[in-house]
Amino acid sequence: MSTPILICEDSGFARRQMARSLPDGWDVDISFAENGEQALALVREGKGDVVFLDLNMPVMDGYQTMEAIRQQDLPCLVVVVSGDVQAQAREKMLALGALDFIRKPIDNEKLSHILASYGIYSGETHSSGASLQKAQDDSDSNAVLAKRQMSKEDQLDACREMVNIAMGRAGENLAQLLGEFIDLPIPNVNLIESNELSMAVAEINRNDSVSAVSKGFISEGISGEALVIFNDTNSQNIVELLKYPPSASSDKLALEALMDVSNILIGACLNGLSEQLNVAFSHTHPVLLGQHQGLSTLLSDNVQRWGKLMAIEIGYAIKARDISFDLLLLFPGDAMNHIYSRLLDDDAVTQDKESL
């Protein structure tokens, strides 16, 4: 008898990756949900004996979904699959009743081990080798077609999931350094013209006075720039959180804090991207774009060299300390095809799994 499996994830790209990661030959009936609200309805219909649950989703996130499952005593086993791997996130979900917590991108061996350890999957196959080979052949033959038919929206979704994983890595590193829980958002991904960048970033941060650090990166046709943008009103809170000794001027301490946080965020995020794209980025030295200036002033000299670009905004927050800052990743248009190609080489053969 097939096991009803529910994959709850707002990214179509991530849903395909999760479906592909399930053990070969496991007799399952897969359903998909884009948010917790949809997932709860499907569980009530008996379509989610085992739920693979993301944390960062619109409408109803993973935390809210897990709380509802517990409060309503819904009959399902939950395995969290997330790019947010902070210790506090793991502890909270396990306390709410989740069986286990798997880091994205998924380690297939670890997933099989977890399923076996809880008696969910025995390792037995229920499909013949011939049928499995046919499914693989059909999928392989459609790989090139899947790439060609991928819409711009699908491409942005793939990039959003890529950044979501890298963002979680950066959040984990920052949480370890600061000893605070970092609130992670759904990354905002847009294709824009360079002359629209100032307007787009102004929507991110409406403060009159900000400071920013920029760091360039490049590898095998993929180049870009990362900027960390701080509200100047947050600077003293960050200094206090980092517990710097009061041996320098407040401006010097604020600059040191800005540089330290920027290096951690950018470095961890780029490491997460490089692992997924299978490239090694070379980094430039961080550059202070300015302190206590308006956003348009900071960006005016940097925007001119960009044409069409992909802008990815990640708004980090430490709510307990009233601190927020934004990481902005900028990729020029000629780098996007390289990114898509590397992501799709890993994902194109799974395009048909959502229709199983």
Q: How would you summarize what this structure contains?
A:
It is built from 13 helices and twelve strands. With 356 residues, the protein is an alpha/beta fold. It starts with a strand and ends in a 9-residue tail after the last helix.
Features:
alpha/beta; single chain; disordered C terminus; 5-stranded parallel beta sheet; 356 residues; 13 helices; 12 strands
Distance between the termini: 16 Å
> How many individual helices?
13
Which residue ranges are poorly predicted, with pLDDT under 50 across at least 5 consecutive positions? 125-148, 347-356
Structural class per helix/strand content? alpha/beta
Number of strands: 12
Helix/strand order: EHEHEHEHEHHHHEHEEHHEEHEEH
Radius of gyration from CA coordinates = 22 Å
- DSSP strand content: 15-25%
- Main sheet specs: 7 strands, antiparallel
The whole-number mean of residue pLDDT values reads 82
User: What's the overall geometry?
Assistant: globular
Helicity, in percent? 40-55%
Q: Care to describe what's here?
A:
- By secondary structure, this protein is α/β, with parallel strands linked by helices.
- It is 46% helix and 23% strand.
- It contains 13 helices and twelve strands.
- Strands 6, 7, 8, 9, 10, 11 and 12 form a seven-stranded antiparallel beta sheet that branches. Strands 2-1-3-4-5 form a five-stranded parallel beta sheet, sandwiched between helices.
- The longest helix is centred in the C-terminal third of the chain and has 28 residues, at 250-277.
- It is globular and about 65 Å long.
